[in-house]
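Milestone M4 deliverable, item 7.
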Amino acid sequence: MKYLFFLILGCSLLLSSCEETNNNDPAVVITKISPYNHQVYDFNDTAFFKINFSDNSLITSTSLRLYLATGKDLLNMSFKPNNKMASIDTFLIMNDSAYTFVNFDIVAEDDAGNSSSKSSHIHIRL
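Output delivered:
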């Protein structure tokens, strides 16, 4: 009888100590529509950047950074959409020989602190 009491007490302590699971486990979904990874452009072409974001919670921040291999920023933009869907739609005219290798980073975070990121680069054909 004493063992049964301690068994019930132990089980009730275990059940009460379990944390509630977070239903917002998935991170923000980043869908990069353009450019393609490692896409090559001719001089004076326009590189379009179209990125969509979605989440089951509010997206609190999105950003796109374009930079050269030297680390020099070409474009650094960020938004605070506070919505479940967002997008970035911008472009870069490939009219500089320094653009032989342009890196880009895409980052998003939701109100639960989950973050996602994608990185790649594009090239200019000289």
